[in-house]
Specification:
This protein has about 375 residues and is α/β, with parallel strands linked by helices. Helix content is about 30%, strand content about 15%.
């Protein structure tokens, strides 16, 4: 385990989360790969020669059609469907709330088997629909400007809990079977609660299921994984998943980034950018996205903009400038609009793309860095 003493919150010893079976002893099917689905049939006594066919049938109903009832799986013999229903479950988790923003953004609060609450957010745009997915319950990092970072870290999410977020969103949007064109959910970003590279085993398994062309079928070119800078895991992520990379940078020098993103004390900017330069597949057509929250008087000067261009030299880069999304008790303010515009112009004029990401879902606390409030509010309401 990485030694991040004094950088992260203490990690609970028992953090594995719910197991492979529900309270009734039924095996969860969501999150299983083909080999594991084949083993379900093996345990039911199916002949070895038919296991691959059966696994493919179940995969189709589970991940392509989004079926929630074994009786609907009509290509599987009725008796076998009944036996499956006795030993397995299609459960995705319970939707505690589904909020809709005035700008069309949607947010789901989902309760998992052990009671853990997670949030995911859907952002519809003219040319795409992006689902922001969580990888952990809470977050172990202490980024000072991020609301999620103030929430106690509980555990990593299981692969099924990651895949289920996409399935739940598709359930709500009515997007089954998996469409080939005109998708409402065309892109997935691992930018919700948690640090994905601290849960890479589970994230990788989940994303491989999502990317499979015979199931959910979202291309790796439309999946982005965001990290605060877990340098030792970045190479593995690129080699194993080859998805797009986003880096939560937010500062141009170590002194400022140490305050904003404390993991920088372990992996300073120079090491982080070296890992970015090594990232497989990065090119002008596949740029690394650098997230940069605009904080008034902290990281928003013209000198900061020029230094940002300098330190990113040689990296195929796009910089997302994010007007800071406030939350109760935070010590930072959002940079004013003329300052943000000037910062963007300096970077653009130096030849680096620096669009300003307009806030979405602020009214339901679904904007970048705000995921937490609904979970806390939900728990409070349950105590009354």
């Amino acid at each position: 385990m990485l030694d991040l003493t004094d950088i992260e919150k203490p990690v609970p010893v028992d953090n594995a989360g719910p197991g492979d079976f529900d309270a009734n002893g039924k095996r969860y099917l969501v999150g299983l790969d083909r080999d594991e689905l084949a083993n379900v049939f093996r345990e039911l006594g199916e002949p070895e020669k038919s296991l691959r066919m059966r696994a493919n049938q179940l995969w189709h109903w589970l991940y392509h059609r989004g079926t929630q009832d074994f009786e609907d799986m009509t290509t599987i013999a009725k008796g076998l469907r009944a036996r499956l229903a006795e030993v397995a479950t299609l459960d995705r988790g319970a939707i505690e709330s589904h909020q809709q923003s005035e700008d069309g953004t949607a947010k789901w609060l989902v309760r998992n088997a052990d009671g853990a609450l997670i949030e995911s957010v859907y952002i519809p745009e003219e040319d795409r629909g992006t689902l922001c997915v969580s990888s952990q319950v809470g977050c172990t990092l202490n980024c000072s400007f991020c609301h999620t970072g103030t929430q106690a870290w509980v555990r990593n999410l299981q692969p099924r809990e990651i895949v289920a977020q996409i399935m739940i969103a598709r359930d709500t949007l009515g997007e089954w079977p998996s469409p080939q064109e005109g998708r409402l959910i065309s892109n997935v970003v691992m930018m919700g609660m948690g640090e994905p590279l601290y849960n890479l085993d589970h994230v990788a398994k989940a994303l491989k299921i999502v990317m499979d062309g015979d199931g959910v079928s979202i291309s790796k070119r439309r999946i982005t994984l965001s990290t605060a800078g877990v340098v030792p895991m970045m190479d593995r992520c690129g080699e194993e998943l080859d998805v797009n990379l986003a880096v939560s940078l937010h500062a141009v020098n170590d002194e400022t980034r140490d305050e904003l993103v404390p993991i920088n004390r372990k992996y300073p900017i120079a090491e982080l950018l070296a890992a970015c330069r090594r990232y497989p597949g990065s090119s002008n057509s596949r740029r690394i996205t650098f997230e940069y929250a605009m904080l008034k008087g902290v990281n928003d000067s013209a000198a900061d903009a020029r230094e940002l261009v300098r330190i990113l030299k040689g990296i195929p880069a796009k910089i997302n400038l994010i007007p800071f999304n406030p939350w109760p008790g935070v010590a930072y303010d959002c940079s004013d609009w003329p300052t943000i515009r000037k910062f963007s112009d300096i970077v653009f004029n130096a030849g680096v793309s620096a669009p300003i990401r307009m806030p979405r879902g602020r009214d339901i606390m679904a904007a970048c860095g705000q995921l937490k409030s609904a979970s806390v509010k939900q728990r409070a309401s349950q105590r009354t």
